[in-house]
Write a structure and sequence with these properties.
Elements: H1 6-32, H2 41-51, E1 58-62, E2 69-71, E3 76-80, H3 81-85, H4 89-106, H5 110-139, H6 142-179, H7 188-224
Parallel strand pairs: 1-3
Antiparallel strand pairs: 2-3
Helix pairs in contact: 1-7, 2-4, 4-6, 4-7, 5-6, 5-7, 6-7
Organism: Rosistilla carotiformis
Keywords: Membrane, Transmembrane, Transmembrane helix
Protein name: Neutral zinc metallopeptidase
């Protein structure tokens, strides 16, 4: 079994940040779920989409908690039950964030287009890249290490390009929430608390991917020397 204590120096710090980010987003979501809003998540998302002329975009309920997402293939927003029917700051913030992705899709927002194109390579890299690199390191197979590095680089690229996509969707949500009268401007900090906490999870995921890639590169280049 391959064991390298240096791996912990690269991977543990971003892993701890990811754990903190997950705790933070759940804490903020629970807290802001107690703050009432004028509309449900469904109504807020529908108002935002309709204002952008996206009346053809459907909104459906999906199982789970914090499972909300926009499906660009089906052109559908899928909102968890608590967000779909909840009339809280958390619900309208999350719903409008996902509506922001639909707006990005409609206008062919470049980072979203690139991110969607990178999905197949990122899935392969996530499933095989790390494993292949570790096997290469364990058995001293340098070519195999580099195959793993290249595959995992797709994961890191996906995470990096995902950051502007998510930040932009949140900014669109914040603007439209006020512009459409879904919340008062003085209530924006409540919604921002949830969206900013969610943003930290994207930052943590990106840092995890980059530091893992950096570790593989460090080992691959070190072994070559």
């Amino acid at each position: 079994m391959y064991f390298d204590p240096i791996w912990f120096l690269f991977v543990i710090p971003p892993m701890l940040l990811a754990m903190f980010a997950q705790w933070r987003v759940k804490s903020a979501y629970h807290e802001m779920s107690q703050m009432p809003a004028r509309m449900t998540g469904f109504q807020a998302a529908r108002a935002m989409l309709d204002s952008a002329g996206l009346t053809q975009i459907g909104i459906e309920q999906t199982p789970g908690e914090l499972s909300d997402h926009y499906d660009p293939r089906a052109k559908v927003l899928r909102l968890s039950s608590n967000v779909y029917s909840g009339n809280s700051m958390a619900a309208v913030g999350i719903a409008c964030h996902e509506a922001g992705h639909a707006m990005q899709d409609a206008m062919h927002y470049a980072p979203l287009v690139i991110r969607n194109a990178a999905v197949p390579a990122a899935k392969i890299g996530s499933g095989l890249g790390g494993t292949v690199a570790m096997v290469g390191l364990a058995f001293g197979l340098q070519p195999l290490v580099w195959v793993g590095v290249i595959a995992f680089a797709a994961v890191a690229f996906f995470q990096v390009i995902n950051l502007p996509v998510e930040f932009d969707a949140s900014n669109r949500a914040k603007h439209q929430l006020v512009a459409q009268g879904i919340i008062a401007e003085r209530d924006l900090p409540f919604v921002s608390k949830v969206l900013n906490a969610a943003a930290l999870t994207y930052v943590a995921a990106t840092l995890q991917a980059l530091m893992t890639l950096a570790y593989f590169l460090f080992r691959a280049l070190g072994d070559r020397r």
